[in-house]
Design a protein that fits this description.
Number of helices: 9
CATH architecture of the largest domain: Roll
Shape: elongated
Number of domains: 3
Strand content: 25-35%
Structural class: alpha+beta
Distance between the termini: 95 Å
Number of strands: 9
Strand order of the largest sheet: 3-1-2-4-5-6-7-8-9
Helix content: 25-40%
CATH topology of the largest domain: Urate Oxidase
Largest sheet: 9 strands, mixed
CATH superfamily of the largest domain: Urate Oxidase
Length: 359
């Protein structure tokens, strides 16, 4: 008959955490090497041990790649929500340096933000978005113009088996500008975007440009002069940094419209572009230039409209302007469109907030 011995230490029978861990690893190795013995010990249903180290030397072969799940290209039964066409699906703000040709010859490499999207048929689950990025890296060392963009567009339109595709390249383009009177030079940077759309086989090319200028209020100018003449009171008219966003659709088979050309069109419409390098004589000249070119926001879009309509390379266009008032705590804004491309009843709620120049 067994009797309890009060002097016997039962804690010695309890394995430590390390001993239990070693025993568990032994059982797992046994399950992997000898399934029958593992089953006899009641350990057959335990999962195989996971490798806890990164397999740096592992190279997947074709068979392994083919076995990998691909949910984006899965059957329509995996679609969540309404099975309907999606007009835009893709990537936004993918960045890389791209080459661009300059009007005066040569090329320039600029950091570029890429937005690429395709339409998605109702019966398709999704797209492999990395293909859009790979399409660009395949041409990254070649100068980008609309012909090159068209090649990239066609390649990922084919790869993704879609019917519509779009690309927008956004970058800052430098131009060396001379001061008004001192002869100094400095670089002006322009926010530019090239956009190309392929809808049902019909291609459309669009250039977007932000033009930054100073706008002197005509009303404030006249009131200031009135105070001087009638009361001998010094007064200054208010003026402010202003932004016009020009979006132009290029006519088919028209000669090239360079970025430099579009900037020149803007300057011919509104001469008071903000300055880069300024000495005292330049500042005085700019004050005189503003004084002889007072402009309301309504004037700005109409002057730009007149200039755009006079260029045969430009088809439909939109001009949106924002005068960031120094008199008021709000901005004065205006939008003018010609043609169907940019015509719309509703604007993005934050559209005018983007018409802001940060230098």
């Amino acid at each position: 008959m067994n009797k309890f011995n009060p002097g016997f230490d039962t804690t010695a029978m309890t394995p430590s955490r390390e001993e239990a861990k070693e025993a568990l690893e032994t059982l797992r190795r046994l399950a992997a090497l000898d399934p029958e013995e593992a089953a006899a010990l009641g350990f057959a249903d335990q999962p195989a041990p996971l490798n806890r180290e990164y397999p740096a030397d592992f190279k997947p072969d074709a068979e392994y790649k083919a076995s990998m799940p691909d949910l984006q290209n899965g059957p329509s039964s995996l679609i969540k929500g309404e099975k309907t066409e999606i007009q835009h699906v893709g990537i936004s703000n993918f960045r890389l340096p791209l080459l661009y040709s300059k009007k005066d010859g040569g090329e320039i490499s600029l950091e570029t933000s890429v937005t690429g999207s395709v339409s998605l048929a109702a019966q398709k689950k999704g797209i492999n978005m990395s293909r859009i990025m790979r399409s660009f890296y395949g041409h990254a060392c070649e100068p980008f113009n609309f012909e090159k963009i068209s090649e990239v567009l066609d390649s990922y339109l084919k790869d993704l088996e879609s019917f519509d595709a779009r690309i927008q390249l956004r970058f800052r383009y430098p131009m060396l500008k001379e001061s008004l009177r001192s002869g100094l030079h400095g670089f002006q940077y322009y926010d530019v975007a090239f956009e190309m759309l392929n809808n049902g086989g019909k291609a459309q090319r669009v250039i977007h440009l932000d033009y930054v200028y100073s706008s002197t209020c005509p009303c404030s100018l006249e009131l200031s002069e009135h105070a001087r003449e009638v009361r001998g009171q010094i007064a200054t008219p208010h003026s402010q940094r202003s932004v016009a966003r020009i979006s132009v659709a290029l006519e088919d088979d028209a000669p090239c419209l360079w970025i430099e050309d579009l900037v020149d069109l803007c300057i011919s419409a509104i001469a008071t572009e903000t300055q880069v390098m300024v000495k005292r004589e330049d500042e005085q000249a700019f004050a005189e230039l503003n004084g002889t070119n007072p402009i309301f926001v309504e004037d700005a879009v109409r002057l730009l409209c007149e200039t755009m309509e006079g260029d045969s390379r430009i088809g439909d266009f939109r001009v949106a302007a924002s005068h960031q008032e120094s008199l008021h705590s709000h901005d004065a804004v205006s939008v003018l469109t010609k043609g169907d491309t940019f015509s719309q009843a509703s604007l993005d709620p934050r559209f005018f907030e983007t018409l802001f120049h940060t230098g």
